[in-house]
UniProtKB/TrEMBL annotation:
Belongs to the CAP family. One of its GO terms (biological process) is cAMP-mediated signaling. SUPFAM superfamilies: C-terminal domain of adenylylcyclase associated protein, N-terminal domain of adenylylcyclase associated protein, CAP. Residues 312-449 form the C-CAP/cofactor C-like domain. InterPro entries: Adenylate_cyclase-assoc_CAP (IPR001837), Adenylate_cyclase-assoc_CAP_C (IPR013912), Adenylate_cyclase-assoc_CAP_N (IPR013992), C-CAP_CF_C-like (IPR017901), CAP/MinC_C (IPR016098), CAP_C_sf (IPR036223), CAP_CS_N (IPR018106), CAP_N (IPR053950). PANTHER family: ADENYLYL CYCLASE-ASSOCIATED PROTEIN. Pfam families: CAP_C, CAP_N, CAP_N-CM. One of its GO terms (molecular function) is adenylate cyclase binding. This is Adenylyl cyclase-associated protein. Residues 225-238 have a biased composition (Pro residues).
Length: 472
């Protein structure tokens, strides 16, 4: 099977090389462009994208060489194929689904080749391969045909595709940070190629998807010249551009609930069911009676209690803007030190842990945490506690706004610089605020926030005041 896959991939590479060099290709490749599109604004902008961003990726890959250079060449080849497709779109009518799949096949071939390389887990450059393969799905924005096509809008699609790839580029950055700067340069250049490179290009020229030429030539699927080969035991990687919708629904086996309804609507719904004979009916069974015997009752064994599922622990920076801390259990030395005022911190599902944020950030949110402690310096916007139980937070700098929502038990330690913070509570109990004493030798002063209120109707409106308790 592997030999057949390699042979198929080599054939696809040869066809793409013919496309890049010779201009004309086979009926299953890209047609010749009869009009000079080099002066078209969107094509010129794509050339600028390649010169400004793709050149950096290529230069970094040249320094590394080997397999990284090979996969980078394939990645840039995919961009070149996409450029050819964009030029062809301007001269072509929008095809039907079968013709659409045929039209996008050259791009899909390159993506499949890179995806196949990414499946080689034994390679020391596995993370490089996965970065390239996952990122290439961003080029599928060209397949967007409208809100009902099942894809995100082009700009959002590019951003979402890069998020999947960034998981692996971050691994490259961590692995080679102190080993080889060329790999770090490659990972950063790859990100710039998509964000802001491809994203800004799509935003400027194709925010609603490609624009076809209503008066252009037609594209149709190439006729089949030979019967399809027998199915291989292990199919090649799936296409990024699904063409299954072009097949008649009757030719595809239905799955899930569709199969259930299809079976119900058929005349064979009772096929295979066992017939209930008279001796099987409860009223005729001798081993059953209407008397309930207490001696026959056995205590029902309760199923073994299973521990609640816990997600994968995370402590990572996503998209360069958001620190995500998730599912940390019993870790007392969590630290975020490389942060800035444009980034936010989101802490979710942590238990019995302590997080230190050593720098100014824009916003901090604790969500569904239990017995969690957070120590932070400055926040630009707000510090928020939502859906938590028994948490502690200490502000060592400035926090203009603190909000507590649907939380049971929170201890807030304020610094002298944050005493003017605006504190908002909702649906929360046992909220205590501790402020520093008059001098460094004084103890913290604890102030419980009220959780009961009296509402009195006066002067055509309700007046609300907290309940005050007086002790004997």
């Amino acid at each position: 099977m592997e030999a057949k896959l390699v042979e198929r991939l080599e054939a696809a590479v040869a066809r793409l090389e013919t496309l890049a060099v010779g201009g004309g290709v086979s009926s299953r490749g890209l047609p010749d462009i009869g009009v000079d599109m080099s002066s078209d604004p969107s094509i010129m902008a794509f050339n600028d994208l390649m010169d400004q961003y793709a050149a950096k990726v290529s230069a970094a890959a040249e320094k590394i060489g080997g397999q990284v250079l090979d996969v980078t060449k394939l990645l840039l080849e995919a961009f070149s194929v996409e450029k050819q497709l964009l030029m062809e779109i301007k001269q072509t009518q929008k095809p039907d689904m079968a013709g659409f799949a045929e039209f996008l096949e050259p791009l899909n071939e390159v993506i499949m080749i890179v995806t196949a390389k990414a499946e080689q887990r034994g390679s020391e450059f596995f993370n490089h391969f996965k970065s390239a393969a996952e990122s290439l799905s961003a080029l599928a924005w060209i397949a967007y045909t409208g809100k009902d096509c099942g894809m995100s809008m082009p700009i959002a699609h590019v951003e979402e595709s890069w998020q999947a790839a960034e998981f692996y580029t971050n691994k490259v950055l961590v692995e080679y940070k102190s080993k080889d700067p060329n790999h770090v340069e490659w990972a950063k250049a790859l990100k710039e190629l998509y964000l802001p490179g491809l994203r800004d290009y799509v935003k400027s020229h194709y925010p609603l998807g490609p624009v076809w030429n209503a008066s252009g030539k037609k594209v149709s699927a190439a006729p089949s010249k030979a019967p399809p080969p027998p199915a291989a035991p292990c199919p090649p990687p799936a296409s990024h551009f699904c063409s299954e919708s072009s097949k008649p629904s009757s030719s595809q086996p239905k799955q899930g609930m569709s199969a259930v309804f299809q079976e119900i609507n058929s005349n064979n719904v009772t096929t295979g069911l066992r017939k209930v004979t008279d001796d099987m009916k409860s009223k005729n069974r001798t081993d059953r009676s209407g008397v309930v015997s207490t001696s026959e009752k056995k205590p029902r064994s309760s199923p073994a209690t299973t521990a609640p599922k816990v997600g994968t622990p995370k402590l990572e920076l996503q998209m360069g803007r958001k620190w995500v801390v998730e599912n940390q259990i019993g870790i007392k030395n969590l630290v975020i030190d490389d942060c800035d005022a444009k980034q936010s911190v989101y802490v979710f599902g942590c238990k019995d842990s302590v997080l230190q944020i050593q720098g100014k950030v824009n916003n901090i949110t604790l969500d569904k945490c239990t017995k969690m402690g957070v120590v932070f310096k400055d926040v630009v916007a707000a510090f928020e506690i939502v859906n938590c139980n028994v948490v502690e937070a200490q502000c060592q700098g400035i926090a203009p706004t603190i909000s507590v929502d649907n939380t049971s038990g929170a201890q807030l330690y304020l610094s002298k610089d944050s005493l003017e913070a605006s504190i908002t509570t909702a649906k929360s109990i046992d909220i205590n605020v501790l402020v520093p004493g008059a001098d460094s030798n004084s103890d913290w002063a604890e102030h419980p926030l009220p959780q009961q209120y009296i509402h009195v109707y006066k002067n055509d409106q309700f007046e609300t005041s907290p309940v005050s308790h007086s002790g004997a």
